[in-house]
Amino acid sequence: MRKLILLWLLLGAVGTAISQTITIKNNQTQQPIELVTLSSASPSVFATTNAEGQANIAAFKGVERIEIRSLGYKTLTRSYAELEATLFILEMETSNLNLDEVVISATRWRQSTDDIPSKIINISAEEVALQNPQTAADLLGISGKVFIQKSQQGGGSPMIRGFATSRLLYSVDGVRMNTAIFRSGNLQNVINIDPFAVENTEILFGPGSVIYGSDAIGGVMSFQTLTPQLSLTDQPLITGKAGARYSSANNEKTGHFDVNLGFKKWALVTSVTSWDYDNLRQGSHGPEDYIKDYYVQRQDSMDVVITQDDKLLQIPSAYSQINMMQKIRFKPNERWDFQYGFHFSETSPYGRYDRHNRVRNGTARYAEWDYGPQIWMMNNLNVSFNANNSVFDQMSLRLAHQWFEESRIDRSLNNNERNTQSEEVSAYSINLDFVKATHANNTLFYGVEYVLNDVDSFGKLTDISTNISEMGPSRYPQSTWQSMAAYVTDEFKISEKFTLSAGARYNHVLLDSEFDTTFYPFPFTEANLSNGALTGSLGGVYRPDETWVLSGNLGTAFRSPNVDDVGKVFDSEPGSVTVPNPDLKPEYAYNADLGAAKVFGDLVKVDITGYYTHLEDALVRRNFQLNGLDSIPYQGELSQVQAIQNAAVAHVYGIQAGVEVKLPQGFGFSTDVNFQKGEEELDNGTTSTSRHAAPFFGISRLNYKANNLNMELNLAYQAKRDFEDLPEEEKEKTEIYALDENGNPYAPSWYTLNFKALYKLTETFDVSGGIENLTDQRYRPYTSGISGAGRNFILAVTAHF
Q: How much is the pTM?
């Protein structure tokens, strides 16, 4: 009898454990599926599977409708009772033709794309593993919907719908990454993010100012890094991966390691990645104008121009980088969840290749033009609380501190004076977000935000012959930038087929700068801006049936002038110098987009979105006067004075379209294409092409999946942009473009053919790689200052545990 009682108690305990843990597997491979999201609107409950495909769903008990989603799988809807009847084991069927994606974080709150009128795409960790992007910028590029510009190998500036740089917003774990010195010129800050430590990447196209405030005009790129996973049993959960990768075009040597240690209430994730890149070799077939067959070397107190043995090497472009991440999670019960994250990234110094292409008097313009080490550090505490009270169902508090450090180092050929400009930014942010389901069909998302940036900028002049340094001109004034905001979004499900969403945000931005007139005779010593902005959005999603989705969205956005706009001093192009302008006001954008997606017979999916954005009081660089002068000496050259001004109206319109075809025997085909046209008015009343509106571009893919093998052959391409269609500010940059028959710069069309493959050797080991640019094309993406890689062999090995 005693044994029967013990057996009964044991079975009861097992039953209790089973009742709280679901296991989700791939129906073909029977492998566990990580990052499956389970959600319920009423009550508001959410869970995500860990590396073993398991999640605790005790909070779902009694729920009638649980939506189960994962990118690349068919969405399922089950009740808790149905899951219980299967002993909490669920199998999901793969599908690349979903019209509803997983719960997303690009809106900062967890929502389904079922209910969001804006266009959002997801780049999964599985896709990243196949494509092997070298940087986070390359990661964004594999989507086929984001154009990437590079001025050097250590860089990557995304362009989305005709906007770029400080008109796009970056988010890491829900924290705004943009600072007060994010510039209107090309940015490389995105490379601070480690692709190996990112579990999910989402891109929101169009305005995101209701959620993120200033800068989110063209889109939001949201990176969710590895989340510490708790153990759902009495045994510790230990998972992770270790990998190494080699690429031939730049002799890449990369190593990565991450490990998750989870207990019932505590979990930790540690991640470390190291990259080392030599100078990048470009392709052998293409414009001769892209070849710079020399570099400058210091020899016996002289700068000597050296002719390269291999003219296809782009010298200097080598650099290295290290990233570290540590996360700690404490979840004492189902109501509270505490997560702390530490991120650190540092690059080596690296050459800005496009500046090394500049010539003066028939020889190299610069002996040095380098970026110093680029450092990013973030401490982030995220506290989540589930209450289901009259004020909120869920609350999330994010406290973050970020540290940015960067520098620019330049020296003219055979000039002993080296100019070093360094910037340091401390960025503090507080976000308090709430979710409240007022009834079954209506949900409110609201919150408040405060951001503070402290900007320190320094200049140093060094005589390299004596190694004596003195204070030099800084790039920026000493400044503080503050943003305060309150925002609300209401999501109302009018019917099962139609969801309406509306949002509003009030944002107030303060900027205080103090200028040093020691080196430049500015007619002012300070700038003080105080700008308020009200932005809003209104949109809807209509689903006539399971094969159709129609969406429309109207939205406004703004960008308040930052320290870079108001206070920088730099040589924007040969013969021009940009000076401060304290009399700036915000620019405002008005956007409309309309999208449709249709699945035909579970075999073909067509997705198309059209958009139009109108930008008023656009902050653009125009000719200016300083103390009544339109030209001043700068770095030994008489230069035209320019400044950022509210001097233009601009508009961008375009189409994003995609087709996916499910072919027999595991094959599939897809194409993503992007057309955009941007124009901005000039001082003389004419118009010019917007600088960041890329030419037509896209990617077409033929893929094959079977058992443990995943292969893809893809074609990436960009259309030509003639001299007449180049932006006015680009027409003088002969050092980065090819030259037409008249000697004028233009951007040639190009393509690359690429093969990628991933094979799962065992439960532990994966091998992946491929050949990029199979035909060894010499190509240069539009506005880029460095060519893309020539034929590139990639080999990577990953061990999972």
A: 0.92
